[in-house]
Design goal:
The protein is α+β, with helices and mostly antiparallel strands and about 475 residues long. The chain folds into 2 domains: about 35-280, no CATH class; about 310-464, Protein Transport Mog1p, Chain A, CATH 3.40.1000.10. Helix content is about 35%, strand content about 20%. The strands form 5 sheets. A 7-stranded antiparallel β-sheet has the order 8-9-12-16-15-14-13. A 3-stranded mixed β-sheet has the order 3-5-4. α8 (about 195-210) packs parallel to α11 (about 250-260). It is elongated and about 65 Å long. The two termini are about 30 Å apart. The model is unreliable at about 5-35 and about 290-300 (pLDDT under 50).
Length: about 475
């Protein structure tokens, strides 16, 4: 199901999962004309970042169509390593930069300094400062250690006794231990999804790097604006993977004076224009595996839901979920899904095929008390249909949850997995002055196998 329309903002809540009390954001220290950046809570060492990143990169190289042109790779690696030399947090990472032969305007980073830039991003950039901004943003994710920070939160939630015992990386290989916990840094992993706060941090680091590398630090924000206007269809994946922080351009503009006085900043180079020209002269990228996403054709089904449940504490509610599922928080809600539960739909956009999502929904023109739960639910279903045109209501009934009135809506829909139908259960109830919407999502062929887990989750749902 495509749930990006949930909530009044219409944004995806495919974002970084977190234990809120563990999130540590970098602080701006004034008076010394310099920023101090501090990565969040992390159970991994910097060397383990490199280890898991190298393993994930080896898998990514097998799955992605990579460019092998030596001139393009030389240019991108020279630029990337020059930028990495200006990071505010020094780390001994084996910085490696690769180019994916895809027209999608995108880029992503794996822990330990393994950066992938799509050919489409280089071709869309108007000058070197802009593509330098894209790369500096990705290196920002690396030095802020966003990937292993997220993995640490998942591990603490799923295996706290093992973590407290200091077992990470001791009794067996790190990769096998992570696999046992259902944690992967591969190209299909939820760990490649970043929250808006992580995107803001990467923006801050990227702006710092651009300034100290001698580039116009406004270029990164300029690139985001330009591609959104010039290539709206080709940038959907970019903004799905890089959720746009509010006031992004304003925040970057406010940050730049803190870095120091204005300089005669560099914006372009003959090397960049020659590389871009070389790419544009190459044959069009192949179709088939253009982006780092799970296949929508016939992906392997996730492991069955575990009968062992763990608790998630949300804003105003709590719910249990299978301990082999992953948590991904957003501004308006949370996604609970097994590894492999998110796939790319036919248009390349990310959609949920297995699991559950919970979010707050606010009726657009009236308060919830004016609408009532049933009317607000209908408005929500109508908004979901905007990105799920074949969705239909099969059955709708009233129910009680924890003594509170609720509405259960059984929905039929096309699954994002090609050739399959989907069965969804939407549960709605009042939460303060908004609607709490809980939706259970699964292909029709797997509904019976997932129904006991869905029932157990629903029984555990509590408002607070």
């Amino acid at each position: 199901m495509r749930t990006r329309v949930w909530g009044q903002t219409g944004k995806s809540f495919m974002t970084m999962w977190a234990l809120a009390w563990l999130v540590l954001v970098p602080s701006v220290v004034l008076g010394i004309e310099k920023l101090k950046f501090k990565p969040g809570f992390n159970l991994f060492s910097a060397q383990q970042d490199v280890q898991v990143g190298r393993d994930a990169a080896a898998d990514a190289d097998k799955q992605l169509a990579l460019l092998t042109d030596p001139e393009v790779l030389r240019y991108v690696n020279d630029l990337g390593r020059r930028l990495a030399g200006n990071e505010p947090i020094k780390a001994d990472y084996p910085w490696t930069f690769k180019v994916v032969n895809s027209e999608d305007i995108n880029a992503f980073a794996l822990p330990g300094g393994f950066i992938y830039v799509n050919r489409g991003a280089i071709e869309a950039a108007e000058d070197e400062a802009q593509i330098a901004g894209v790369i500096a943003h990705e290196t920002g994710h690396v030095v802020m250690r966003h990937g292993t920070h997220q993995a640490s939160q998942v591990m603490l939630a799923q295996a706290p006794l093992a973590i407290l015992g200091g077992l990470l990386g001791q009794s067996s290989s790190l990769g096998s231990q992570l696999a046992e916990l259902g944690i992967s840094f591969g190209v299909n992993s939820l760990l490649l999804k970043n929250s808006r706060s992580a995107e803001s941090q990467a923006d801050e680091v990227g702006t710092y790097v651009l300034y100290h590398a001698g580039y116009d630090p406004h270029a990164m924000a300029q690139f985001f604006e330009i591609i959104g206007k010039k290539y709206p269809q080709r940038t959907l994946q970019f903004f799905s993977d890089h959720p746009n922080p509010e006031n992004r351009v304003k925040d970057i503009d406010a940050l730049i004076p803190m870095l120091g006085p204005a300089k005669p900043w560099k914006t372009d180079s003959p090397e960049f224009q020659a590389t871009k020209k070389r790419l544009l002269a190459m044959p069009a990228p192949p179709k088939g595996k253009p982006a780092p996403r799970a296949s929508a054709g016939s992906p392997s089904p996730p492991l069955p839901p575990s009968v062992r449940l763990v608790n998630y504490q949300g804003k105003g509610f709590a719910i249990d979920y299978p301990d082999n599922w992953q948590v991904q928080e957003g501004e308006t809600g949370v996604t609970l899904a097994p590894q492999g539960g998110l796939v790319s739909g036919p248009d390349g956009d990310t959609a949920q095929a297995y699991g559950a999502s919970l979010s707050r929904y606010q009726p657009r023109t009236r308060s919830l008390s004016q609408w009532g739960v049933v009317d607000a639910t209908q408005q929500l279903v109508d908004s979901l249909r905007q990105s799920n045109p074949n969705m239909r209501v099969v059955k709708q009934t009233g129910m009680k949850l924890g003594g509170q009135p609720a509405v259960s809506t059984l929905l039929a829909n096309d699954s994002p997995i090609q050739g399959q139908k989907e069965r969804d259960i939407l549960i709605t109830m009042r939460l303060d002055q908004s609607l709490l919407a809980v939706i259970f999502i699964v292909p029709e062929s797997s509904f019976d196998a997932y129904k006991p887990a869905f029932d157990a989750m629903l029984r555990s749902l509590a408002l607070r």
